[in-house]
Design brief:
There is one protein chain. With 295 residues, the protein is mainly α. Helix content is 69%, strand content 3%. It has helices spanning 11-31, 34-50, 57-75, 81-88, 91-116, 170-214, 225-293, and strands at 152-155, 160-163. A hairpin with a 4-residue loop joins strand 1 (152-155) and strand 2 (160-163). It is elongated, with a radius of gyration of 30 Å. Mean pLDDT is 75; it is low at 91-99 and 101-125.
Amino acid sequence: MPNLSTPIHSGVHKTACFALYRALLRQSRQVLPLEPARHFKKLTKDAFRVNSKARRREQIRIALRAGYDALGDLALKRSDIIEQLSKLSQYPEIERELCGRKEARIETSVLVKSQSGKKGLDLGRRWPYPGAKPVLDGLPPPPPGTYRRVPTLVNANHIPFLRFKKPQSPFLSYIIRKKNIEREKRIDSIQALEDQLRLVEDEDRWDQILWEHHQIAGEGNEVPWTSAVREALTNVKQVHHTNTVKRMHAAQRMFDILQEQKRLADQERLDRRDRRHQAYKARRSQRETLDDLSP
């Protein structure tokens, strides 16, 4: 059934937009100088005013993504943040980008449909962050002037992952949902094969009874009925066990990364405290020296 609800009528959507608006203004005051911060505030208000009545989901998605990208660029103290945000307040720019993405998505859907013969999937909605590296390979150091973010180890229906912030990435949600579906399919297959195994065991016993009493060879007398079912059940259980072991190793690796990040965050916090204490001692020594020199 299609989703006919409008995002602007959703309380969750309004809360997310207000939170993004406040975060942009707060971060700009902390990062940018006074005059660029005022200009950034005006651009932010214009951008939210232009897109406040947007009803098309694609336009809302592009606007929110631009806002979150601007918030991330503020955290990294990038210099081109004002130029990027100024595009958001111009509706024709968003419309052209929207049309371009629509055409690219339609071409992708047609290509998938022509290759598979089935209904094309909307592959343009699921992608990792550009240049993203696997978490298990290690986390990069934080940008200069920022604090280290310690992730949280989360168990999503027996699938471990490290969550760095909310909301989590749509690509991560897609991967978790896909792995859960595959695991449920394996569990359903194991249950179905176990039920089938009891039936074929009865067939083998019936063939044995016919052979012992009437010397009648059943259709599966040479090869037991249970052989194929047992082989399939063993293969599915082996795949299920292999994936379980992989999840265990991944969870242990994520736990080690989490402990290392906690240790580094504590060490960096102690270093910042020592630097502040040394700076305070230097200022105090300088004041005492000036007091001694004063008549």
